[in-house]
Inverse folding.
């Protein structure tokens, strides 16, 4: 089964997706090629416009051996390197600066199981590639047999070339809904489009949700479903979302490119119930030395990439540190963000969560810089809830808060106030590499 066939229950006139200028339905798509035998073809797709990417996925899935989906934010050198490493040497793109690399694809019949090659969402270096299939990507997608009158209207704020973006797109399309995919970097303009198109379902990272909560225009969103993924969803954020959107269902999705969709949490509380670890179906979990390991059932298996750590029982190391407290498994942060300050181990994400609760703070990120005497020192970048706050007074409030709430080693040595924190193309805060 391929993506085109999975959508075969949709009428040719059904709107599938739209942005500010374009719309797509089945009448936009070419048929598959003749029933001839073609050599295995691997295709790389680099798409700034989600509608362009969707057209390519619907056209190519089942007709080519593999599709390597790359972020449009990647530089030319990284793109060429990944194409060479993976062997998908034919490029399709809507980026003008890459047109000299574009090749032609001869479509065969839709009788192949196409490999979907996705990249991890790291913020530094060339990303790593993980191999999926349409089966693993859509394993948890609720497929509608027919389009209802009250179609879910899914807003897309993730890059669609990422695993999280594909999850939104697949749920919108296969769930009988419409994908709303505004383009551009101006978040306010994208939100305005979603409001005008009556977006009812929206998925974003915690970083993006915090930005949305600070935007007055987001009050006009009438959401039925709020989905959070990609980073830790702390109780402060969950409570703020429930307060602003009291009629919405709030779901935290635990997923990654490496393991696919692990499990959803719908109770509106940070972390997940401990009985998820002892459950016998779906995603099997275990905690080893404070780190979460996950094992998917066969229907959602992902072919291992070289960088994925597995044990003898085929559990995958997620790299997420957790603790069990009052029958709840709470996320502490990534193993890679545990730093040593003056002989004390500090979890960066835990400190950030505490600082965000300071009354003047909208969002923040900590950088750990190497220090010959203490191992590392912490430097805080922070954006304020109101731009007219006096910076000196705000810094004093933050320092007082840190002294009250944090042990001495976890208190930032320096504080720098910025207009906004830099986000990666995956919607996460950009963090400094090499903390340890």
């Amino acid at each position: 089964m391929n993506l085109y066939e999975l959508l075969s229950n949709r009428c040719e006139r059904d709107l599938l997706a739209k942005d500010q200028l374009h719309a797509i339905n089945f009448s936009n798509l070419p048929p598959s090629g003749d029933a001839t035998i073609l050599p295995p073809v691997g295709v790389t797709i680099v798409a700034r416009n989600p509608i362009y990417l969707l057209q390519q996925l619907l056209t190519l899935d089942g007709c080519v051996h593999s599709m390597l989906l790359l972020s449009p934010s990647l530089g030319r050198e990284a793109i060429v390197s990944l194409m060479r490493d993976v062997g998908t040497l034919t490029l399709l793109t809507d980026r003008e600066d890459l047109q000299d690399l574009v090749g032609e694809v001869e479509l065969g019949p839709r009788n192949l199981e196409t490999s979907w090659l996705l990249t991890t969402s790291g913020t530094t270096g060339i990303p790593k590639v993980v191999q999926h299939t349409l089966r693993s990507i859509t394993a948890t997608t609720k497929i509608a047999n027919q389009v209802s009158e009250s179609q879910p209207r899914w807003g897309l704020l993730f890059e669609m070339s990422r695993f999280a973006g594909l999850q939104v797109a697949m749920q919108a399309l296969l769930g009988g809904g419409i994908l709303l995919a505004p383009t551009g970097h101006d978040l306010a303009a994208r939100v305005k489009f979603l409001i005008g198109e009556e977006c009812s379902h929206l998925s974003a990272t915690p970083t993006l949700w915090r930005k949305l909560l600070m935007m007055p225009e987001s009050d006009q969103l009438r959401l039925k479903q709020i989905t959070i993924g990609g980073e830790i969803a702390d109780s402060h954020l969950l409570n703020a979302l429930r307060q602003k959107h009291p009629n919405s269902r709030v779901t935290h999705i635990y997923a990654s490119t490496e393991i696919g969709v692990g499990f959803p949490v719908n109770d509106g509380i940070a972390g997940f119930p401990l009985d998820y670890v002892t459950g016998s179906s779906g995603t099997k979990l275990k905690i080893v030395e404070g780190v979460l390991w996950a094992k998917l059932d066969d229907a959602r298996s992902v072919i291992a990439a070289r960088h994925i750590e597995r044990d003898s029982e085929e559990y995958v190391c997620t790299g997420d540190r957790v603790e069990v407290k009052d029958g709840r498994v709470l996320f502490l942060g990534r193993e890679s963000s545990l730093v040593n300050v003056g002989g004390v181990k500090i979890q960066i994400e835990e400190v950030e969560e505490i600082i965000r609760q300071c009354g003047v703070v909208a969002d923040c990120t900590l950088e750990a810089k190497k220090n010959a005497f203490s191992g590392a020192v912490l430097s805080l970048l922070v954006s304020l809830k109101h731009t007219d706050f006096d910076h000196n007074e705000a810094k004093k409030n933050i320092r007082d808060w840190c002294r009250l709430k944090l042990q001495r080693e976890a208190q930032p040595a320096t504080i720098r106030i910025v207009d906004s924190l830099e986000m990666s193309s995956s919607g996460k805060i950009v963090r400094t590499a090499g903390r340890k």
Notes: The chain has a mean pLDDT of 87. The longest helix spans residues 391-405. Residues 336-417 form a domain with the GMP Synthetase; Chain A, domain 3 fold (CATH 3.30.300.30).
